[in-house]
Amino acid sequence: MAPSAPTDYHPVVLDRPGLQSLIDALVTDGRRVIGPTVRDGAVVYDEITQIGELPGGWGDDQGPGRYRLRRRDDDLLFGYAVGPDSWKRFLFPPVSTTWRAEVSREGVEVAPPAEVPRYAFLGVRACELAAIAVQDRVLVQTNYPDRDYAARREQALFIAVNCSSPATTCFCPSMGTGPRVGSGHDLALTEIPDPAGSRFLVEIGSERGAAIAARLATREAAPADREAAAAVWSGAAAAVSRALQADGLKDVLVHNLEHPRWDTVASRCLACANCTMVCPTCFCADFREAASLSPDHAEQHRTWATCFSVDHSQLHGGSMRWTTRSRYRQWMTHKLATWHDQFGTSGCVGCGRCIAWCPVGIDITEEAATIRATDGLTRLPAGATP
Amino acid sequence: MALALPADVRPADAMVPVPYRVVGRARETADTVTLSLEPVGSPIVTPAPGQFNMLYAFGVGEVPISISGIDAGQRVRHTVRAVGAVSQELCAAEAGAMVGVRGPFGTDWGIDSAAGGDVIVIAGGIGLAPLRPVVHELLRNRRRFRRVTVLVGARSPEELVFRGEVASWQASARITVRTTVDYATAAWKGDVGVVPTLIERVTIDPEVTTVMICGPEVMLRFTAAEVLGRGVAAERVRVSMERNVQCGVGRCGHCQLGPVLICLHGPVFPWSRVGPLLARREL
Questions:
Q1: What are the chain B neighbours of A298 within 8 Å (beta carbons)?
Q2: Fold identical between B18-105 and B111-239?
Q3: Between 1.25.40.10, 3.40.50.80, 3.60.20.40, 3.10.28.20, what CATH number should domain B111-239 receive?
């Protein structure tokens, strides 16, 4: 991620044709521009070249176990919160090759790693920049960095767009990650509504960002532009209704591993793994031999894995976590408690995806609050009647 | 066979297996063999007793295996029990076969910190494998330590690993060795009973004793409880843990036990660290 925003950059204003010029400039630079687009009834991230591919006029209604696109009464291009995708899909792809090797008479030859794509990410939310910073800690700031992730990450350009329309599932303010973009961006856009077509206040976060902005037809931001952008920021902050009380939560959770709430949530949880797939920080992965019909070729794939599967903790002789109770507990206590021990940060950024995409609407903020409110309860011993 | 590894792949990428050749294969029990491995090209870093490697069977997959021998030169030994597809393939590897090695990973037993005091090594079944280099080290520098006791248990006499070697340790009389089995045969001359029952017959000077334990998890718990009961501080009781390890470097998430990652923070832990975690079911 870029160094924190130098203070001597002044915000500029870009109009819609200017946004197209930005995409064009990135493509000219040989970048693959990944941005939001509507597909399969959701805002997903995919390669785009035209602003017409952005989700113009689309918003999202989200709640526990619910995600629906809705038509906005304006034509904002970034008037949604977040969809099921995160940038993890591109920085830490669902399937990637760790190495490939060929056997020949001369021995085993390991192929050099493939080149990584040069991405520009358009429409990155503040919570998502925070999620990338979390994955950086897990995957790069270690003695054994993930080289593929590090290379993708290093190459990528981050064009953030401040959130204007948080969903009811969002709780970024309580996690200290949003909704306003603070750091990690090369450019941070704020979409200012205008009946004549929205325009963008552009804040510059890095030299790379400044170099791109300098190639665009911008004008200096007027006081009215800044006020309008500030209204977007404060409107977004005010629109967030959900919260997770994070202070002291780590201790609460590790002291309540036998809380009866784990049984309650396990009675609803399908162990479907949706939450871990949509989570922008979940990093668990299988490193497995990829099946090959050739006896002379082998490769290992890294694929997304989930702590909700029985075989995630499989040893010879059985799984270490055979109940859904223990697997949900593993996921939530890892995310909110033991992540701190392992990586010095919370694993949750408050994006709310796990709430919306849970088929039964389990809400991590509700589960955490309930355990906190009933701190110290323990389940009945097996066989006891309530 | 020549090896063509691009110069930039290693050691930069801990995920790429390093080619080794099987140069020796000794059968330990019906389902367990010890492989001696030598590098085809550049070797891995010399392991410390207690560390593990990821062993790769070409076209099948990788498993974490503790290092059961660190020989002079670049040879490493691994004692493998056939319990799954990969370990079966490894156990079947004949001399001359190629395997991949990544590592060494994880923490070691910290033998140096036990110098000047007593050492009790306690192994259950194939748990003797990662402790074998410890015994070698204790014998090599016997004078650095006071009393050295090795307690070895197995389900039956046929399931004892390194049988000849254990007998030679016993015969040398330089260290005290006791063996026990859960189920004896008529020919068995050792003790009968689970490993923790041997501990009551060992003289323990808790202030200066370091205990190193490896075996099935239930054996770890009962054995640790026994030595703690004899007054040894939990910091001086070390255990080697097993979990599903796929990357070996703290990135795959499979080996978590609450706050710890077995591959990175372990596999060897002081009991003070993992004892409370193991008391929790399904953590």
A1: 58-59
A2: no
A3: 3.40.50.80
